[in-house]
């Protein structure tokens, strides 16, 4: 399920290489998406990373035909050249476009629906 030993994932992840901008305050880092789920995002780590770890981030992902996903997230970990974010779905505007994007990359549609149901119960 994961390329990192000891890592447990509660949600199915899809490896998708897309551009992502990480915004915090007046700072913007242009990165690449490593993987994504309904509840989390992993990106590569910028060469210069001077973010405030306890402050929220906005991740802007160009999802092609699904449009631009704007996800609000908190940094959960920095390791092995990647950043791991927990996504906060405050208004739910991105859930449907995210579902559409993930449905092309997660082979088991029942797993994706179960993930969305888990997310709704949190």
Automatic annotation (TrEMBL):
GO MF, one annotated term: cyclic-di-GMP binding
Which segment of the chain is annotated as a signal peptide? none
Q: What is the lineage of its organism?
A: Bacteria, Pseudomonadati, Pseudomonadota, Gammaproteobacteria, Cellvibrionales
Q: What is this protein called?
A: PilZ domain protein
Domain named PilZ: residues:
7-102
- Gene source species: Congregibacter litoralis KT71
Gene3D superfamilies per UniProt? predicted glycosyltransferase like domains (2.40.10.220)
């Amino acid at each position: 399920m994961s390329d990192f030993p000891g890592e447990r994932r509660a949600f199915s992840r899809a490896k998708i290489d897309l551009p992502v901008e990480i915004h915090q305050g007046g700072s913007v880092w242009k990165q690449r998406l490593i993987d994504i789920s309904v509840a989390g995002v992993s990106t590569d780590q910028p060469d210069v990373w001077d973010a405030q770890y306890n402050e929220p981030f906005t991740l802007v992902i160009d999802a092609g035909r699904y449009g631009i996903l704007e996800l609000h997230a908190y940094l959960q970990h920095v390791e092995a050249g990647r950043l791991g974010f927990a996504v906060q779905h405050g208004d739910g505007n991105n859930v449907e476009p995210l579902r559409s994007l993930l449905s092309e990359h997660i082979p088991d549609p029942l797993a994706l629906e179960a993930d969305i149901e888990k997310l709704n119960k949190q």
